[in-house]
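CORE FACILITY INTAKE
Project code: CF-77B
Contact: R.S. (postdoc)
Sample description: multi-component assembly, four entities in total
Requested service: structural model of the whole complex
Turnaround: standard
Below are the sequence entries exactly as provided by the requester. Do not edit them.
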Amino acid sequence: MTTEQVATPRPLRKDAARNRELLIEAAREVFARRGLEASLDDVAHHAGLGVGTAYRHFANKYELASALMEQTIETIVNSAEQAMLVDDPWEGLVAFLEASLVVQTADRGLREVLMGVHDPQKMAQVHDRLFGPISELLHRAQQSGAVREDADATDLGFINGMMCTVADMAGDSSPDLWRRYLTMCLDGLRPGGTAFPTAALSEPEFRDAMANHKHTLTRTTKDTSAGQDAPAKAATPAS
Amino acid sequence: MTTEQVATPRPLRKDAARNRELLIEAAREVFARRGLEASLDDVAHHAGLGVGTAYRHFANKYELASALMEQTIETIVNSAEQAMLVDDPWEGLVAFLEASLVVQTADRGLREVLMGVHDPQKMAQVHDRLFGPISELLHRAQQSGAVREDADATDLGFINGMMCTVADMAGDSSPDLWRRYLTMCLDGLRPGGTAFPTAALSEPEFRDAMANHKHTLTRTTKDTSAGQDAPAKAATPAS
DNA sequence: TTGAAGCGGAGGCATGATCTCCGGAAAGCC
DNA sequence: GGCTTTCCGGAGATCATGCCTCCGCTTCAA
């Protein structure tokens, strides 16, 4: 319908193209190490470029970051699909979790996106794409008797979240520590375990929880209950 | 040695005393719900008082918060000691974890203090007091054959951290969800599980990890590597 | 009744992130 | 080489936000 040439209005000058690549590379490193708390200014400096250059190429850090993440997220979705091809259902499930965590633990910015720290919508999109494959993986493992029947797909989401926490806590000095706790959790997913005292979240509940998730130290909505439930004027009544 | 009367220089006027109590009560609620991100201003408004009043009573929010927490932390230490009195070593261990998590999951500010979000020193103090009792609880359980031999006291620290994450994620709508995942983790602590692929952190390593723990979205040290590893001047060489 | 103690909250100070602007430096075409 | 276009750099404007002070007014209590 429309012309195809829209993608290349002008070829971009040589230095500009090079700097753009430098920026993307720098962003990858900076966001992976410090998360999206890093500013475009930081990225620019890390690339050895001026701030202006960065803002000329990308409107803001989220534009840059989401371009970067898109690709990685695709990787995760793919690994879910590939895990379905593994013969042993349990192995498949484990393979997926590990593959997905290898990527996540290496990239703090990605963890933040996946946990919906900055943009719940973005995260919701990702979950849309992942929920189906993950459910399948789980059900297949349950039908084969490898996973307890009362486990739920949202459990895998929480396990993922817990591993991210471990990665955050352990930091660069023990980058593989999460594997220890994943092993522990997976043993707890096997049949014959203690009955769960609490029901799993349903998928919509899970979605909600992630969206409203008050990340430690994230800016939250102001305290709107100010004074309403407190004695009006307290110890200084009007008369 | 010194006189005892230092504690009461002046009796504090009636309204002042009352407002002080109101502030403490408000702080308890506000910090529990929103964590230490809340400002003294927030606490004051929640108490129905002016900001000035708050600052007259407490130099800053940390002074107020740590006074508040002290008491709760004591509770946790006590519950560790009481857990040693439980006959069944496994039950004792579980009882301690649950008791400590009941307190923590109900109070986001406490979680932050215990995770060392704001003040690593404070956290270190708490860990000093907890490490001994927790180790004992664990070893006793291991000797009774209830817990796998290769589990470590630091594992309990990470399990605790993971449960806090669950609590953060689940929020107020599912305040007990952590029990589900604690059950899962505890099953994974039982003897006969899959071999761990990674060694546990040693206690000093654990301490370090907590102290340097880059909490999601916490302000961190600036990127000091700016430009050093990047091509100097990039696409704009000096001549 | 009257001075001391306490209150409220506007606003000053500090921090830090985001993004703009424009003089000057390449790039690329002739 | 000359000349236009594109791009660069980074100081600093703008905005957001949190912390805390200050001072005119209110309330307490002797």
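Facility notes:
- Residues 10, 12-13, 15-16, 19, 41, 44, 49-53, 56, 219, 235-236 of chain B lie near DNA strand C (CB under 10 Å from a C1').
- Residues 1-7, 216-239 of chain B have pLDDT under 50 and may be disordered.
Invoice: internal transfer
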